[in-house]
Design a protein that fits this description.
Length: 69
């Protein structure tokens, strides 16, 4: 029976929430294998002088642990 682990990750983008989520997945994928899902827990926008400066997301990333390790 596979074991699933969940980590919480904060990611950002200067472009959009969608891009922030993609950045989260790309960074986590560098060190974690077997990613099953990403649950976006929260959204945040940094604002400067009335303009959106950056978009942030807090994500819970679920992945299966290697059974052979």
């Amino acid at each position: 029976m596979p074991i699933v682990k969940v980590i919480e990750v904060i990611a950002s983008s200067e472009t959009s929430f969608d891009d922030a989520i993609k950045n989260c997945i790309a960074e986590v994928s560098k060190t974690i294998r077997n990613i099953d899902s990403v649950y976006v827990k929260d959204f945040k926008v940094h604002v400067k002088e009335g303009e959106a400066l950056s978009y942030g997301v807090i994500c819970k990333v679920s992945f299966r642990l290697d059974e052979n390790r």
